[in-house]
Amino acid sequence: MRAFLNLLVMPLLLAAVQLTAQTSAELHARYGEPNQERFVIRPGISVSAEYGSDHAVCRFTIDPIPQAETRKRPVAQVNHSESQSSSGERLEQHTELNDPPPLAHMLIESAEEVLEELIPGNSRGEEEVHSIWESGGSQIRETHYSNVSISRLINYVDQKKPEVLRRIIATFKRDACQN
Q1: Within 13 A of 70's CA, how many CA atoms are on the CB side?
Q2: 166 lies in which domain range?
Q3: CATH code of the domain covering residue 159
Q4: What is the mean pLDDT of the chain?
Q5: What confidence tens digit (pLDDT) does each residue in 17-55 have?
Q6: b/e burial code for range 116-144 (CB count within 10 A of at least 16 → b)
Q7: Which is it for strands 45-51 and 92-94: parallel, antiparallel or unpaired?
Q8: Are 155 and 140 spatial neighbours (Cβ–Cβ below 8 Å)?
Q9: Which among 163, 143, 144 is positioned nearest to 154, based on CA atoms?
Q10: Closest CA to 124 of 179, 170, 165, 63
């Protein structure tokens, strides 16, 4: 009976989801221009741009794009009586609790190249303050310039493993960005 309901209900749910999917053009027509966009700038690196009231960029966020995991995951078998079909098949439940995928990260050199493309050093203004916060294997490095503030989130495990860059956020210091 349960299998029959799944066969009947699942296609209806999928059809409902497909009917509600909207295109970019439909969203633009309904809500206007977005105040944020995301671009794939390099293989494995994306940049989100948030715009201010003057329609110029107020914040860039440089993030890694998670790569598809290719290694096998452990499989836990569920042995409840209702999980077996009449043919004796077992329902398998995949879990990542004991073997989570690695966090996505970027090569520092590649991310810094992207940052330099987006905000060349000579446009940042004079360096005002540089600070570092550390906690539990993570570090935030902030540099405040007269025109922009740049934060880098870095993780490290120990001296044998290199530090990895998780995110760069650059926030411009313009009146239109002070929302």
Answers
A1: 1
A2: 31-68+102-177
A3: 3.30.160
A4: 78
A5: 555 678 888 888 989 888 899 999 988 899 999 999 888
A6: eebbeeeebeeeeeeeeeeeeeeeebebb
A7: unpaired
A8: no
A9: 163
A10: 170
Question: Does a structural domain hold residue 91?
Answer: no
What single letter denotes the amino acid at residue 179? N
Give me 145's structure tokens: 């310039």
More confident residue, 65 or 13: 65
Residues 49-101: tens digit of each pLDDT: 999 988 899 999 999 987 653 334 444 444 444 444 455 555 555 555 555 55
* Full-model pTM: 0.67
Asked, for residue 164, whether it belongs to a domain, the answer is yes
Residues 6+ apart with CB under 8 A from 90: 77, 78, 79, 83, 84
Beta bridge partners of 97: none
